[in-house]
Design brief:
The chain has 8 helices and 4 strands; from the N terminus they run αββαααααββαα. It has about 400 residues and is α+β, with helices and mostly antiparallel strands. It has a 4-stranded antiparallel sheet with strand order 1-2-3-4, with no helix packed on it. α2 packs antiparallel against α6 and α6 runs antiparallel to α7.
Length: about 400
């Protein structure tokens, strides 16, 4: 487009019959009658062609940055879909690991009820069977969620010579979480100036800077409208001999045309004012985008810090306490000193705590992936090395 915009308009060629007498339509009756061929070429106002070409070249510079940003966005989307599928799969695994415990509870309750030795009631047996049924329902819902996310992943995977129905991504999900690179360390403070420098180097910012430069040229282009456009034309007229057979000389015409921009109030002035407004609007958009990126980074950073706190709390305190509570309630029940409902509640609470811990791990990885996006470098399509902000892997 820049090459086309920087080219002169096509010349115009004309061919006509001039001053033909209408009484006889004879070509040699009048001396002014002639076959006329002409050519004309227009030249745009001022330096508008060069400015248009450079403006489009500048706009084109934004597209490589948009490609890098698109690559980073796809990485975020695919990673989050993968983590969602992983979370559903690992939640199913946790439930299957705990299923045997609930089955043992059901067997203990049935044995105690059959022997009539303890305080087990029929409703305890029903409660144990009910919890197993509810576990089955949770597994079914999680299988549905996992299948949904894996099917969404197929949108981003190029599968050649493979039957889509036979391709099960879930079967390829690993059993361990693949950690994303961590750019933020615990209790780490990022200097404001360094953060703005990194965000200013983000590809979306670089693409917008190309737009700003192009709108600057748009103002220069609007200034050219105050200059005249001009053109040159030349024509050659071929005349026939006179009625007596004497030859007549042919005619050559040369001229120059010029536009005169006298009435500029409703045209050139308005175009120039609009160009300035567009430039200022894009400059304002740049600051809005920079503040949006900074707010997104600070939000993700704060979320990561809270997730780290929760992860430490679950690992060091909550999960061990839940396990102790479940074991204590089971011991009390087997010694006829506890309630079966309390045993079931303790086991369910322990299972839910394990699932919550898994959710924290997955949410933490999603947050790190989002932080990776904010540190995307405009220099290459790989994620930026943010070693100055924290430890990298």
């Amino acid at each position: 487009m820049s090459v086309a915009a920087g080219s002169l308009p096509d010349p115009q060629v004309s061919l006509g019959l001039a001053n033909l007498p209408t009484d006889s339509f004879s070509f040699n009756q009048e001396s002014m009658t002639q076959i006329k061929i002409g050519v004309s070429q227009m030249f745009p106002q001022g330096d508008s062609l060069n400015i248009k070409r450079r403006q489009l070249e500048t706009e084109a510079e934004a597209f490589p940055y948009q490609r890098i940003n698109r690559s980073a966005q796809v990485a975020v989307t695919v990673s989050q879909l993968w983590l969602d599928a992983y979370k559903a799969q690992e939640t199913i695994a946790l439930i299957e690991q705990n299923r045997s415990l609930f089955e043992q509870l059901s067997e203990i309750a049935l044995s105690s009820y059959s022997s009539a030795m303890g305080k087990t009631r029929q409703q305890d047996i029903v409660r144990a069977q009910l919890e197993l049924t509810r576990l089955n329902d949770r597994v079914t819902m999680l299988n549905q969620a996992r299948d949904t996310f894996t099917e969404k992943l197929l949108e981003w995977i190029n599968i050649e010579n493979t039957d889509l129905a036979d391709y099960q991504i879930a079967g390829h999900l690993p059993n361990t979480l693949v950690l994303a690179p961590e750019f933020i360390e615990e209790e780490m403070i990022v200097r404001e100036e360094d953060l703005y420098n990194r965000l200013n180097n983000h590809p979306v910012m670089k693409a917008l800077e190309s737009r700003i430069e192009a709108t600057d040229m748009g103002v220069d282009l609007a200034k050219q409208s105050y200059k005249p456009a001009w053109g040159v034309n030349a024509s050659y007229g071929r005349r026939n001999n006179d009625p007596f057979g004497n030859s007549r000389s042919d005619a050559l015409s040369v001229g120059v045309s010029l536009s005169v921009p006298l009435f500029t109030a409703n045209r050139q002035d308005k175009q120039y004012s609009a160009a300035i407004s567009r430039r200022e609007a894009v400059r304002t958009e740049r600051w809005q985008l920079l503040r949006k990126l900074k707010a997104g980074f600070e939000t993700a950073k704060a979320q990561l810090a809270r997730l780290d706190e929760r992860k430490a709390l679950f690992t060091n305190e909550l999960l061990p306490q839940m396990n102790e509570q479940a074991e204590a309630s089971l011991t009390a029940y087997t010694n006829d000193d506890g309630d079966f409902a309390e045993v079931v509640r303790a086991r369910i609470a322990e299972l839910n705590a394990q699932i919550d811990a898994l959710n924290i791990d997955v949410d933490r990885e999603k947050t790190i992936i989002q932080l990776n996006y904010f540190f995307t470098s405009s220099g290459s399509e790989v994620l930026a090395d943010a070693s100055e902000f924290g430890e990298t892997k």
